């Protein structure tokens, strides 16, 4: 038996919502898990091409472990262990459209896809809450895995007793979301390693009030409030040095009417620009020009929010 699951990309943080806000985006990974019948075959993990069902062997996937250290396998193993079983003889195929190590939730998508597929293979012993909890444990924070499972715009929190709280929020459909993906990688581990252990009280207060403003702004479609809200002092200032051009891009749109904000997508290096009735070609050309002046190629896409979370493909 084999099960395939299609999972959306996600952008996390949205400025002040560090580790708690995330939004699903219409770029997808498909994860297929097959229980192989031949005993002794162990686990097999393949990166597959999108068009043809062929295994691809590209350098960008070289750093992805193909054994028990693979995050999909780890998540699946935790699920099996939670019901007193051990996984064996599994073939995991990953078709990846989501650019890896760019801050677009590619790892969350494969973890979620693997878990949902394995859960189905096991006869669905785990509910959504249990899957969310395992996915958060593997990923380290819930802000990408929550929208990958639920779709839409999600506020999530891992509480001190380990439980995950999730709340879907409204997102004004008319606000454009442009993702500016540079052609360099930034691993989340590196992007988290530059963050301080503690921050000044004034910075914590800054984020608390800007996050409250953001929630109110999306609920009331208040663009002025949103523009004031999309600022952060907990992660972006520390990560700026890892993302060449980030400061220039943010400066370029700071005073533009119609651009509601410009933030780092997750841990970066992708930059997310939120706008309304603003010239999208101008966003593209401005970002392109800044990054190209630093010899950085770009892939810039304006997307709609993906309202659906992970789907089992029949
Ligand atoms: N909230 C996380 C971070 C998202 O900013 O590190 C990246 O996975």
3D architecture notes:
There is one protein chain. This protein is α+β, with helices and mostly antiparallel strands. It folds into two domains: 2-169 and 306-313, Ribosomal Protein S5, domain 2, CATH 3.30.230.10; 176-303, 2-Layer Sandwich (Alpha-Beta Plaits), CATH 3.30.70.890. It has ten helices and eleven strands. The strands form two sheets. Strands 1, 2, 3, 4, 5, 6 and 11 form a seven-stranded mixed beta sheet that branches. A four-stranded antiparallel beta sheet has the order 8-9-7-10. Strand 5 and strand 6 form a beta hairpin. Helix 1 (71-82) packs parallel to helix 2. The mean pLDDT is 92. It binds L-homoserine. The site of L-homoserine has 13 residues, from strand 1, strand 2 and helix 5.
- Kindly, what is the distance between the CA atoms of the first and last residues, rounded to a whole number of angstroms? 12 Å
Broad structural category: alpha+beta
Bound chemical compounds: L-homoserine
Treating each run of at least 4 consecutive H or I residues as one helix, how many helices? 10
**Would you tell me which CATH topology of the largest domain applies?**
Ribosomal Protein S5, domain 2
Order of helices and strands: EEEHEHHHEEEHHHHHEEHEE
- Specify the oligomeric state: single chain
Provide the residue-averaged pLDDT: 92
Percentage of residues in DSSP E strands? 25-35%
Q: Please provide the count of β strands.
A: 11
State the shape.
globular
Helix content: 25-40%
The level 1 CATH classification of the largest domain is Alpha Beta
Number of domains: 2
Largest sheet: 7 strands, mixed
State the CATH architecture of the largest domain: 2-Layer Sandwich
Ranges with pLDDT <50 over ≥5 residues?
none
Taking Cα atoms only, what radius of gyration do you get, to the nearest Å? 20 Å
